[in-house]
Amino acid sequence: MTAPVPISEPGPPRSLTPLLDAGWRAAGYCLHPRVIGWSLAPLLLAALGSFTVMWFAWEPMVSAVRAFIDDWRLVDALLRWLDAHQAESWRSVLANGLLMALVLPVVMAVSLVLVATLMTPAMGKLVAQRRFPGLERKAGGNFWAGLAGSLGASLLALLLTLLSLPLWFMPGVVLVLPPLIWGWASYRVFSYDVLAEHASGSEREALRRQHRLPLVLIGVLGGYLGAAPALVFAFGAMSLILAPLLLPLAVFLYMLVFAFTALWFTHYLLAALHQMRACSTTLHSNQGGASAHISR
């Protein structure tokens, strides 16, 4: 009976080269016809769902938010001052802006789950076939565990984002806290889904432990890229009023960001898995040769 190959952990990476190499490859793979094809189903599903909800429920939600802020004495005092200076339209703008601040994190959570469940497994197989055709599939994870992890991490990130909204008015917080929250969620979700097919459970945990810093960095950079779709609504009051029409565009941008982040994790982790197995095989061969030499 063949002895199991030991898992070699040579230590954390000391160079940014693997990280940058995986990033450039991920950007190139975003233009691959298969990746574009795989993105159509979740994109259409999310865009259609968001457009339907916004088209039929946007006005009632805006009215509810406006009634809420009218009852908020501090905000109501500000709005009365604006009314006195012929700026009544700012009531609707403020209501639309506050509602959009609540809706966008939900869109991010849904986009993350859709990309993780409908795109990441297929993209992992594509990268493995093209770059590491001999990489053994040990199936240390499964679809349902990945789905549960995606839902859990996304809901927790959504809750933390909504709870942290009052802190965003503090200088600099909005530039740091949301990318950290969604970067952590991306790290938790994609580091599992990418390795579910090819790595064993022990290999997955070893890679997470060994490469924790670059993996978190990929997630945080993806979190900063995730702030880009919000810029769709940063071009004046008219963009907020037209939010039901612009939201599908934001959904497309979120899908693109999360697909790129998933590919970045895929290229980095599969390369790290390939290297770890090569080191383990070499270590096992050296141990076998040493044992044979001692027996002689």
What is the topology?
Layout: H1 17-29, H2 33-70, H3 73-84, H4 90-118, H5 120-131, H6 143-163, H7 177-193, H8 201-210, H9 212-225, H10 237-241, H11 243-295
Helix pairs in contact: 1-11, 2-4, 2-11, 4-6, 4-11, 5-11, 6-7, 7-9, 7-11, 9-11
Your description of this structure?
- It is a single chain.
- The chain has 296 residues and is an all-alpha fold.
- The protein has one domain (17-45, 103-283).
- It has helices spanning 17-29, 33-70, 73-84, 90-118, 120-131, 143-163, 177-193, 201-210, 212-225, 237-241, 243-295.
- Helix 4 (90-118) runs parallel beside helix 11.
- The model is unreliable at 1-6 (pLDDT under 50).
User: Largest sheet, if any?
Assistant: none
Low-confidence stretches: 1-6
Structural domains: how many: 1
- The radius of gyration over CA amounts to 24 Å
Mean residue pLDDT = 81
What fraction of the residues are assigned to beta strands by DSSP? under 5%
What is the helical fraction, as a range of percent? over 70%
Task: Please trace the helix and strand order, writing H or E for each element.
Answer: HHHHHHHHHHH
Helix and strand content put the structural class at mainly alpha
**Shape type:** elongated
Distance between the termini: 22 Å
Per DSSP E runs of 2 or more residues, the count of β-strands stands at 0
